[in-house]
Amino acid sequence: MLEKAGITKPVTAFAPDATFYMPIRNDVSADAFMKTRNLEDRKFICVAPRSRFTPYHRIHAHNNWSFEKIQQVITDNERYAEKDHEKLRQVIVRWVTETGNRVVLVPEMEYQTELFEPYLYNPLPEKIKPFIEMHPYWQPDDAASLYARAAAVVSMECHSPIISLVNGTPAIYVRQPSDTIKGQMYYDLDLSVWIFEIDNTTGEQIAERVMEIYQSYSESLEKVNQLNQGVKIIYDKQMKKFSKILTIK
Predict the structure, then answer these.
(1) Separation CA 17–CA 227 (nearest Å)
(2) What are phi and psi of 32, to 5 degrees?
């Protein structure tokens, strides 16, 4: 992308999203939530939904989208909402049915709490619903602490899986084509088995991968550990370049 943009400076290199270095936690918040919901360590998964396009016209007061752009975003989000989230529901049903464990519906952005009931919870079989919890909107430190104690995170958002991984928990990113190029870093970090392009995959395939993670959990945790070590090496190498460049002489 830098080359396509005409960047020709001699120092160009890859370093992954800075969310991979996110040291903040709120364990008190996670403990309280888990206690009130009867959640046990490593016996629940977190699932995060997403619309095809973030409704920034509802989020930012000074959004400059045209009326036509807003209508297109609304139309596309409605068009794909059921199709996309039906795949997440298959993950939820498979997880609950085979493990007897619980699921927490979580947001990365505030609007996503509105997707919980119509697209994830309400259409579920009645026998599955008692195993579902819904988390209200939270801050990243709250998310980090809950993800650290989950068995896995399955997210249509790009950053929740990273928060999960950096806190030692396996995570799957279900990528929508309308999301940005940032999802490419999952491939660059050799996480291709934990990323799914939503239009090219089925709910059954995602669910199968979640169960593979759970059934080989020690190996999955080691994969996360190796990933984080590799990211640290990249950061150490690339940040030294920043330090050298920014040093005032």
Answers:
(1) 13
(2) -65, -45
